[in-house]
Each structure stands twice: as structure tokens, then as C-alpha cells.
Specification:
The chain has about 350 residues and is of the alpha/beta class. It is built from 17 helices and eight strands. Strands 2-1-8-7-6-5-4-3 form an eight-stranded parallel beta sheet.
């Protein structure tokens, strides 16, 4: 049995952190579903930029759209929606088999709206409506301005992938926004079964401190932060608030491990897959990490529900001069800017292709 199948059997969803029109058309994604236990995928501006600039698969649609649409952002969304409709259709069987728990794909709102609550709410509703797929997540950042947008979008019945989370505190704030939206639906007599995941970015922690800590702490911060967050997640699942909502027909927001490709060339290329093996969670992994794990990954004991030695390890980082809480806030701010930079590069790519045909 492949390691990917073992991890799936442990109770974790394996999602692909990639999408291209080519993999949709040549059977690659279908093969991942059938052979590597992949049950969903995520996308972001960088992924689409590479896909659009890396070949001619999007040229014909860009040329067609450019005849009537002037805005590169709107052209992008039409390209992305076309791909994600096809992808969600491939995962339709998973979605139905799991009664709506799994089988999702994700599309991000414009990163430039990260500090604009109202505009985020409006764009999330428009994108989900245009997609016409109930197994499409709209990605909304868990920033201070994003949290009320998450609550309102959930209340409106839109499945949300909360992105740009880095810590236990970020995750709990996102979970609170989700539950507030569900509680409002219950009060309004609406169906409380609206899906959501909360995506915590892991590898960026270790990249941020790689040159600041002794060798014995290298590549250990992301795992410790994840263990701390997982303990809080398990406590949240057992909380009276969650239990009450489940009793009324809601489902808990699932924790998603994101940014799980290893950045340190001296570390295991399956470090964040093996380290975050845990039931009722999602791990969305880059394509090369998926292949590496399928080839030589190992599935051991799942993450300890009590967080294991997370607090001891985090104390060691504090002693080494790493302020973990402050770093979480810095990483979110830096991540927000990186998303905007990627977005601008994506729009430049589309504009260049439009100009080349003018």
C-alpha cells in the first residue's frame, strides 16, 4: 500500500497544492485521485501565474476574453473559474461519497482586498455564484478585516477556506468567525451545514528563523507551532460550543496544513507530511512533495492530541531569542504582501499576453 493511501486511511485528506489546465486535460489529476488518494486541491495566484506563463493552454481563452473584457483581473477570474469548474467536477465523486466533507477545490479572492471587509464579502459571493459548484471553497484571508468577511460569507452559505493563518491564535480567531456565521444561520432558521477549512502555513516558520537558531533547533519551529495549534483544535472539537452546533446539524471547520513543501535542502522532503499526520485534518501539498511522499514517505503515529512536546520546544525557541507570537504577526503581514506581489505578477503576465495579440 502506498504511503498516500495509508495517510488517507489514518483519516487525513490529501489535497494537491497545484492546478494547471494541462493536468486537467491529460488525465494527470484524475490519476492522482485514482492512484495517490488525492481528494481535493488548492490554488493561489503564484500557481496560476506559472500555469498561464508556462505554456499555451490558456492562450485561446485569453484571446477570446480580451475581445470583450479590458480588465486583466476579470480575465484571470474567468480563466480560473473554467479550470476550477473542471477540477471540482473531477472531485464530485469524492464530495458525494463523503457527504460533502471532502472533494473541494479553492479559489482565492483578490489579495488586494485583504484589508477591505465589504469588498471581500462582495467578491466572495460573486465568485462562488459564478462558479456554480457547491464543492468550491472561496479563500478569504484570516486577517483582522477578513474575519468579519468570513463570518458574513458563512452566514450567506458560502464555503470558505480561511487562508493566511500562522498560529494557534490565528486559527482560533478564524474558527470563532466560522462558528459565529453558523450560529447566525441557526438563529435565522437556515441550514447550518456550511463547510470550511482553516489553513495554517507551516514551512515559512522554519524559513524565517533558519539563520537565527542553533542547529539543534533547525526545522523544528513549524512542527512545534503545528502541534500547539493541533492541541487547540482538538480541544475546540470537544468544546460545548462545537458540540452544540454539531447537535443542531453543523459540522466543525477542519484544520488544514498548508505550505508543507520542505524549503531546507538538508531536511527530509516529507518532513511536514509525516509530522502533521492527523485525523480529521487536511494536508495540501505541492506536486513534488506528493510524489516524494508516495515514493518514500512513512506513516507513523498520528500527532498527539495533547500537543506532545510543543510547549517545551517553543520555550527553547524563546530562549534562543525567537518571539513566537510576534513572529506569527510578522509572518501574516509578510504573507499578505507576498500574495499581493504574486497577484500583481499574475496580472502582468495576462496583460503581456493580451498586448502580444493586440
Amino acid at each position: 500500500m502506498k504511503a498516500t493511501a495509508k495517510l488517507h486511511d489514518l483519516g487525513q485528506s490529501l489535497w494537491l497544492d497545484n492546478i494547471t489546465r494541462t493536468m486537467l486535460g491529460d488525465g494527470t489529476l484524475a490519476g492522482y485521485i485514482d492512484e495517490l488518494s488525492v481528494t481535493g486541491l488548492t490554488s493561489n495566484p503564484t500557481i496560476f501565474d506559472k500555469a498561464i506563463s508556462g505554456g499555451d493552454a490558456y492562450d485561446a481563452q485569453i484571446a477570446e476574453l480580451a475581445e470583450s473584457v479590458d480588465d486583466p483581473e476579470e480575465i484571470f477570474f474567468q480563466l480560473a473559474l473554467a479550470d476550477l469548474r473542471d477540477a471540482t467536477d473531477l472531485f464530485r465523486g469524492v464530495h458525494e461519497r463523503t457527504a460533502g466533507v471532502d472533494g473541494y477545490c479553492s479559489l482565492e479572492v483578490s489579495p488586494k482586498l485583504a484589508d477591505e471587509t465589504g469588498a471581500t464579502i462582495e467578491q466572495a459571493a460573486r465568485l462562488h455564484g459564478e462558479a456554480g459548484r457547491d464543492n468550491l471553497f472561496v479563500k478569504i484571508p484570516g486577517t483582522p478585516a477578513g474575519l468579519p468577511a468570513i463570518e458574513q460569507s458563512i452566514f450567506a452559505g458560502i464555503p470558505v477556506n480561511v487562508t493566511l493563518l500562522f498560529s494557534r491564535e490565528h486559527h482560533l480567531a478564524a474558527a470563532d468567525a466560522y462558528m459565529k456565521g453558523i450560529e447566525r444561520r441557526i438563529e435565522a432558521g437556515l441550514d447550518p451545514d456550511v463547510a470550511s477549512v482553516a489553513s495554517i502555513f507551516m514551512s515559512r516558520w522554519d524559513v524565517a528563523v533558519a539563520d537565527q537558531v542553533p542547529d539543534e533547533l533547525r526545522d523544528k519551529l513549524g512542527l512545534a507551532v503545528g502541534l500547539r495549534a493541533y492541541r487547540a483544535y482538538r480541544e475546540l472539537l470537544d468544546s460545548p460550543r462545537t458540540q452544540r452546533l454539531m447537535n443542531l446539524g453543523a459540522r466543525p471547520q477542519r484544520l488544514l496544513w498548508a505550505s508543507t513543501g520542505t524549503k531546507d535542502p538538508d531536511a527530509s522532503d516529507t518532513l511536514y507530511i509525516e509530522g502533521f499526520a492527523s485525523p480529521f485534518t487536511v494536508n495540501t501539498m505541492p506536486e513534488d512533495t506528493l510524489h516524494a511522499f508516495a515514493d518514500h514517505g512513512e506513516v507513523g503515529e498520528p500527532m498527539p492530541a495533547d500537543g506532545g512536546d510543543a510547549e517545551q520546544t517553543l520555550t527553547e525557541f524563546e530562549r534562543a531569542g525567537i518571539g513566537v507570537d510576534a513572529l506569527a504577526e510578522r509572518l501574516q503581514e509578510e504573507g499578505k504582501q507576498k500574495f499581493v506581489d504574486s497577484w500583481e505578477e499574475l496580472l502582468k503576465t495576462i496583460s503581456a499576453q493580451i498586448g502580444a495579440r493586440a
